[in-house]
Write a structure and sequence with these properties.
Layout lengths: L8 H9 L5 H14 L6 E4 L1 H16 L10 E5 L26 H8 L3 E6 L38 H8 L5 E5 L6 H7 L2 E4 L20 E5 L2 H11 L17 H4 L8 E5 L9 H16 L3 E5 L7 H16 L17 H12 L2 H13 L5 H22 L5 E5 L15 H5 L6 H6 L3 E8 L5 E8 L4 H15 L3 E2 L2 E2 L1
Parallel strand pairs: 2-3, 2-4, 7-8, 7-9
Antiparallel strand pairs: 1-3, 4-6, 5-6, 5-10, 9-11, 10-11, 12-13
Helix pairs in contact: 2-3, 5-6, 7-16, 10-12, 10-13
Length: 490
């Protein structure tokens, strides 16, 4: 059954409906693959009994001719999504033993459409990181290696477990969240596709919050079509989430055939950062040529406030994290470290429960929100954020999409940058602006580095125009013909 783990979601969907294999066989093949690849640490919690039960229900529906859109499709769920009765940790010690009494809206939508949950994937603690090394449960490892090297590589973060699981054949697709690039950057590092939808397209209800004005759920999969299939199920208005937008959800898969002909593509000159490897620049130019060959026109655009995006993000995001993480105090759920007083219990619980990166960001956030500094830092950052969003709005008056690299490098080895927080933060230099502006963006694998590792190209679109983003991404995917996998050609 090993071949079942190499299928696309679309291929598995067709095979299940044609009765070429059963949902149970498909699920068992993935559970076996997971058992054989535990060194990757892609999953925090495996849910085999739950998966087999869901697969059996899918087989019964398939037999009755009542297949739902994702009937029998086995998925990995980032451990940031609350799953009723299933351990949900956000990669943190402070949520030890937390079994949510309710389901996140995104995962409820997936189960409504027939998907099967294989388990909860590893992630940076509270989604704070670009490498998956801040997880309390240990780092997830990329299934990729540099040729001739035994060094373990990071899968990117924070959705690193999801990306590693998809790339390694441990699920057909996975959920992720993207606050500053946490879907797109690991997708680029692992040679898969990752889509961050428009802010408000997917409900945030039941997603453990990092930065509420930035967090957005999205899919990771092996190709653009599969991301389109997953997004249709994940998206939709949620009256219980005030940031969820009440707009129809298109059939993204059906709309991908439009291609890139007639589209106007913008290339932001500010994304050519100092020290960017020449291979990233070369791939970027190749992407331009692919889109031109498909009938698009390409022009340079100006996004003048891009240089302020990272510092703005690293004020806004920690500030919101400081507020959101105040709820973890040992009183109601998760870890509790007893103390002589309630204040001491708070202090001991939070000291033991949070890792170094989370503590760093909470302290930064508390500082920028404190009396005397709120106006100088947080308020100013929000003003600059508005300017960044206005830059995109102005650019989209003359172009339809923006093309840029996804990340400034290929994946790096475990430990290479972990002692330098600033170097880690720079991984988000190309992805953060789309989050600050709330725009949809996708990463597509487009080539290999000199070390034989995946490199991604990114497309950014207007709000709620995921259909156009996906159509152009499919054009790049077809032109690139990326057929490489962790073990060679796939």
């Amino acid at each position: 059954m090993a071949s079942l783990t190499t299928l696309s979601i679309a291929g598995a969907r067709d095979g299940l409906r044609a009765r070429e294999f059963s949902a149970l066989e498909l699920t068992q093949a993935h559970l076996a693959a997971m058992a054989g690849a535990r060194r990757l640490n892609a999953y925090i919690t495996e849910t085999p009994e739950h998966a087999i039960s869901q697969a059996a229900e899918s087989d019964a529906r398939l037999a009755r001719g009542e297949a739902r859109p994702l009937e029998g499709i086995p998925l990995g769920i980032k451990d940031l999504f609350c799953t009723k009765g299933v351990l949900t940790t956000a990669g943190s010690h402070i949520l030890d033993g937390f079994h949510p009494p309710y389901e996140s809206t995104v995962t409820a939508n997936l189960w409504r459409d027939g998907a099967v949950m294989l388990g909860k994937t590893n992630m940076d603690e509270f989604a704070m990181g670009s490498s998956n090394i801040t997880s309390y449960y240990g780092p997830a490892l990329s299934p990729w290696r540099r040729p001739g090297s035994a060094a373990d590589l990071v899968p990117g973060g924070s959705s690193g477990g999801s990306a590693a699981a998809v790339a390694a054949g441990l699920c057909l697709g996975a959920t992720g969240t993207d606050t500053g690039g946490s879907i797109r950057q690991p997708a680029s590092f692992c040679g898969i596709v990752g889509l961050k939808p428009t802010y408000g397209r997917c409900s945030r209800l039941g997603i453990v919050a990092f930065a509420s004005s930035l967090d957005q759920a999205g899919p990771l999969a092996r190709n653009v079509r599969d991301c389109a299939i997953l997004l249709r199920s994940m998206a939709g208005h949620d009256p219980l989430d005030s940031t969820s937008v009440d707009r129809p959800v298109p059939d993204y898969e059906a709309m991908m055939g439009r291609g890139a002909k007639g589209l106007r593509i913008g290339v932001p000159k500010q994304y050519r950062v100092d020290g960017m490897p020449s291979e990233i620049e070369t791939l970027w130019r190749q992407g331009i040529d692919w889109l031109k060959a498909a009938g698009a026109t390409v022009r340079d655009i100006d996004l003048p406030h891009t240089k302020y995006a990272l510092p703005t993000y690293y004020i806004v995001a920690p500030a919101e994290a400081s507020s959101n993480l105040a709820r973890y105090d040992g009183v109601r759920y998760g870890l509790r470290v007893p103390g002589a007083s309630i204040d001491e219990m708070y202090e001991l619980t939070r000291a033991a429960g949070f890792g170094a990166e989370v503590k760093r960001r909470v302290m930064i956030g508390t500082y920028v929100l404190s009396a005397g500094y709120y106006d100088a830092y947080y308020l100013k950052a929000q003003q600059v954020r508005s300017l960044i969003a206005r830059d995109f709005a102005t650019a989209f008056e003359s172009v339809d999409l923006v093309l840029a690299p996804t990340a400034p490098s290929a994946a790096f080895a475990i430990g290479e940058k972990m002692d330098d927080p600033i170097a880690m933060y720079l991984n988000d230099v190309f992805t953060v602006p789309a989050n600050l502006a709330g725009l949809p963006a996708i990463s597509v694998p487009a080539g290999l580095s000199a070390d034989g590792l995946p490199l991604g190209l990114q497309l950014i679109g207007r709000a709620f125009e995921e259909d156009m983003v996906l159509a152009a991404a499919k054009t790049i995917e077809d032109a690139a013909g990326f057929s490489h996998g962790p073990g060679g050609a796939r």
